[in-house]
Write a structure and sequence with these properties.
Blueprint: H1 3-12, H2 17-25, E1 29-32, E2 36-39, H3 42-46, E3 52-53, H4 59-73, E4 76-79, H5 83-90, E5 97-99, E6 104-107, H6 112-115, E7 120-127, H7 133-145, E8 148-153, H8 162-165, H9 169-172, E9 176-181, H10 187-192, E10 199-203, H11 215-222, E11 229-231, H12 237-256
Length: about 260
């Protein structure tokens, strides 16, 4: 139960003072055996619940973490999951959804079906090529999970720049742009010179030998002469989505004033 809900229920009399005190006394983290300490108060502090990085975790540990987070929040979200991990977890969590492209493993609250909402504001997620889509989908689906509306503009890299110019409308209407590109990573610089909002550049490991598994794209983005560009780590769609969601929320807050 979140702090605000505790206070509201205390005010309307559906929760006693002793019950409210018990909820507030709970530790800000929960010990899971000797393998994990779940950050149960992260959403209270930052506005975002804890997200699970699945890669490298033992199946039994991952299952215990997912079950506890789902019991607490009614939803759970993880990145970099394998199909084998999904197969293992779904026996006990049949409501799990797995996307093999983004490698996201989640149980999500039903929002759109109940409210007709497609998320607040708008974030444009753009890719240079089709091969960059796995990282872009990690970003796009993370933004959507955190409550943002996402516009996907894929395969608009500099090898055919006219494709980008023909798809600028949703980009101009967004509060923030995520530019996902491998090879030389030029898409972020192009977008930075065309829009009046922040561009979050995500270098990907897509490319031939001299791309050094994304290092060339990373260096291009860091050295961009265009303004308003921030850069996250190679293939870090999740990190870009987190930052983009913060920007999008601020944008919508300012629009409401």
């Amino acid at each position: 139960m979140e702090t605000r809900e505790i206070l509201e229920r205390l005010c309307d009399g559906s929760l006693s003072i002793d019950e409210a005190e018990l909820h507030l006394k709970q530790q800000p983290f929960e010990q899971m055996g000797d393998f994990a300490k779940l950050d149960m108060h992260r959403k209270v502090r930052s506005g975002f619940p804890e997200v699970v990085f699945c890669a490298g975790k033992a199946n039994a540990h991952l299952l215990a973490i997912y079950k506890r987070l789902y019991e607490t929040d009614g939803q759970v979200f993880g990145t970099r999951a394998s199909s084998e991990q999904y197969e293992y977890l779904r026996d006990e969590l049949p409501q799990l959804q797995y996307d093999p492209i983004s490698r996201i493993l989640k149980i999500e609250e039903v929002r759109q079906a109940d409210t007709g909402s497609h998320g607040i504001g708008s974030i444009a997620v753009c890719t240079a090529g089709t091969a960059d889509i796995p990282v872009a989908e990690e970003a796009a689906q993370t933004c959507e999970y955190f409550g943002s509306h996402v516009e996907r503009v894929y395969d608009v890299g500099v090898a055919g720049i006219h494709r980008l110019f023909a798809n600028m409308e949703p980009i101009h209407h967004a509060n923030c742009v995520i530019a996902v590109a491998g090879m030389e990573g030029a898409l972020a610089s192009v977008l930075g010179g065309l829009v009046d909002k922040p561009v979050i550049a995500v270098p990907t490991s897509v490319g031939y030998g001299a791309s050094f598994h994304g290092l060339s794209a990373l260096l291009t983005m860091i050295n961009s002469c265009a303004n308003g560009i921030g850069v996250v780590n190679i293939d870090n769609g999740y990190g870009a989505a987190y930052l983009a969601t913060q920007i999008n929320r601020l944008g919508e807050r300012n629009n409401d004033r």
